[in-house]
Design a protein that fits this description.
The chain has 132 residues and is α/β, with parallel strands linked by helices. It contains four helices and five strands. Strands 1-4-5-3-2 form a five-stranded mixed β-sheet. Helix 2 (44-50) crosses helix 3 (95-108) and helix 3 crosses helix 4 (113-128).
């Protein structure tokens, strides 16, 4: 009798990691530049807490995050301030998944330092608590 080892497909592995709480690592298109920010401001620390992530950074000035009706991501750069504008069409409707997607976009599309640190810590904590 031959021993056959069945391995999970990449899609199955990704689905398993997502079920454990890991953020999606699929590529996100980079934001387009605009002259002025659009959308309603949301608090960075509230988003991180709502996503179930520990605040592991100290910031004098948290990122300016805006959610607008529409699709796409935009970055408004002005002297001394950068605004991250995220289209609502790109986000889950509500709750923890919405906040996690905002953090994912901040970390991996906008390359925001604070978001990357928080998301990295979140993933390290998940890994320590799992069987990986």
């Amino acid at each position: 009798m031959t021993d056959i080892h069945v391995t999970a497909t990449t899609a199955e592995k990704i689905a398993h990691l997502h079920a454990l709480g890991y953020l999606d690592v699929s590529p996100i298109p980079p934001p387009r530049l605009i002259a002025h920010p659009i959308g309603e401001p949301v608090d960075f620390f509230d988003v991180a807490r709502d996503a179930g992530m520990k605040i592991v950074v100290s910031l004098h000035s948290p990122p300016d995050i805006r959610i607008f009706a529409g699709s796409g991501d935009f970055k408004a750069v002005r002297p001394g301030l950068v605004s991250y504008c995220i289209g609502e069409d790109n986000l889950p409707a509500e709750g923890r998944e919405r906040s996690r997607e905002i953090m994912r976009r901040l970390a991996y599309s906008f390359h925001d330092w604070a978001a990357r640190e928080i998301v990295a810590r979140y993933h390290r904590d998940l890994k320590r608590g799992s069987a990986f």
